Amino acid sequence: MFQEALKLIKTKKLIIQGLLFFLTFFLIYFVVDRLNMPYPEMVETYGLYLVIINIILNVIMSFLSALLMSFSTVMVKLKGSEGKASNFGFFSVVFGILTYGCTSCVIAFFASIGIAFSVIALPLAGLPYKFVSLILILIGLFWIRKEIDKPCKVKS
User: Does some domain include residue 77?
Assistant: First the structure.
């Protein structure tokens, strides 16, 4: 079944959809980075290597999130239901916004839902939290692969 999903994901419609997902996720990750610490400031504080690592991780995470969303679309076409794993890309973005997003945004968000706390400065401009987000996306991809391969249950 996964081979069929790979064939479907290579269709023109899903390639365009995947590209739009990629650009959307890349924009979100870029904005989160910018709100956390602008790249020139990051270069000044930590060095150019951290900016390069952040941009590479943004590209990888955006691609994998777009792939996850595309597989979710394919699963709807193949099985008629969306996979539970498709939410991992969304969780990754929310996790990123809540952990390595700009301090004022996070405080304002939690204050609006009644949670007040003090925010600690995160190491390396939030890089460790990006790795956690990447792991969430990889878990989602692994999970959706298993869901696609799982046979459909037919009710009689």
Answer: yes
**pTM of the model as a whole:** 0.71
Residue 156 lies in a domain: no
**DSSP letters for the chain:** -HHHHHHHHTSHHHHHHHHHHHHHHHHHHHHHHHHH--HHHHHHHH-HHHHHHHHHHHHHHHHHHHHHHHHHHHHHHHHSS--GGGHHHHHHHHHHHHHSS-HHHHHHHHHHTT---PPPPPGGGGHHHHHHHHHHHHHHHHHHHHHHHSPPPPP-
pLDDT, tens digit (0-9, with 9 covering 90-100), for 21-59: 999 989 988 887 887 788 999 899 899 999 999 999 999
117 within a domain of the structure (yes/no):
yes
